[in-house]
From TrEMBL:
Residues 1-19 form the signal peptide. InterPro entries: Bactericidal_perm-incr_a/b_dom, Bpifa3, Lipid-bd_serum_glycop_N. It holds the Pfam family LBP_BPI_CETP. The keyword Transcription does not apply. The keyword Cytoplasm does not apply. It comes from Felis catus (Cat). This is Lipid-binding serum glycoprotein N-terminal domain-containing protein.
Length: 235
């Protein structure tokens, strides 16, 4: 890696706490985090991961996936006219990616990054002017490691990246819901658990891959070693 690129990486690491402070995340104490976690956090902010998640077309994805079919959900959607379906919406708002709380796990030269994410969904149906707010929480885990080729040279390998199914929680924040809507929302939340992980993965996983692949292998190995040392210092 050229000296100028090393300097740029160092400067970017030093500037991260200031960037996080501007994001209102100074309380995350990013200085205590391994450098690799900070680089991933900075890259996600640079590529506007939160904005990408906010722009997902949730209602269209639910309809296209066929997940709207079961129970009351299917009955309500199928009974709407095309105009009513177009007037209904499910918008992602209040996104909170925990940049300062990225957790790194390791075993030798195998690593995983665990990122927690929360957001709200503002649901509005054409026959009900009331906006129903649903809160969603989940954790996304990405695995990566350094592997040797036949000549003993190391290269970055990207493994699985996905939302932990057991980490997904949905909560209805709006009060005074009618019994009919409560039945609808129960099915709707079940469908959210099936659909939203794939939508989040499609936006965040490619970004993390791109961030890691931009790093020189020697630098990446050094950052991994720093993370290991940081872990042992915390014991």
């Amino acid at each position: 890696m050229c000296p100028i690129w090393r300097l740029l990486v160092l400067l970017s690491l030093l500037s991260l706490p200031s960037a996080l402070h501007k994001q209102g995340l100074a309380k995350a104490h990013v200085d205590s985090k391994p450098a690799l976690a900070r680089i991933i956090a900075q890259g996600l902010m640079k590529h506007n991961a939160e904005g990408r998640i906010q722009n997902i077309r949730l209602m269209e994805s639910l309809n296209a996936s066929g997940q709207m079919a079961p129970g009351m959900v299917g009955w309500l959607i199928s009974s709407m006219s095309l105009q009513q379906q177009q007037e209904s919406s499910a918008n992602v708002t209040n996104i909170q990616l925990d940049y300062g709380g990225i957790r790194m796990s390791f075993h030798k030269e195998w690593f995983s990054a665990n990122i927690s994410l929360e957001f709200d969904i503002d649901l509005r149906l054409s026959f009900n002017n009331k906006i129903i707010k649903i809160h969603v929480c989940m954790n996304l885990v990405m695995e990566f490691w350094l592997e040797k080729d036949e000549f003993g040279r190391r290269d970055l390998a990207i493994g699985s990246c996905g939302v932990e199914q057991s980490s997904i929680y949905t909560t209805v924040l709006t009060e005074d819901i009618s019994p009919k809507m409560k039945h609808f929302l129960r099915h709707f939340r079940e469908n959210l658990v099936k659909v939203t992980p794939h939508l989040v993965e499609s936006q965040v996983c490619p970004l993390i891959s791109e961030i890691l692949r931009q790093l020189d292998v020697k630098l990446l190995k050094s950052l991994m070693e720093q993370a290991v040392a940081h872990k042992f210092n915390q014991l």
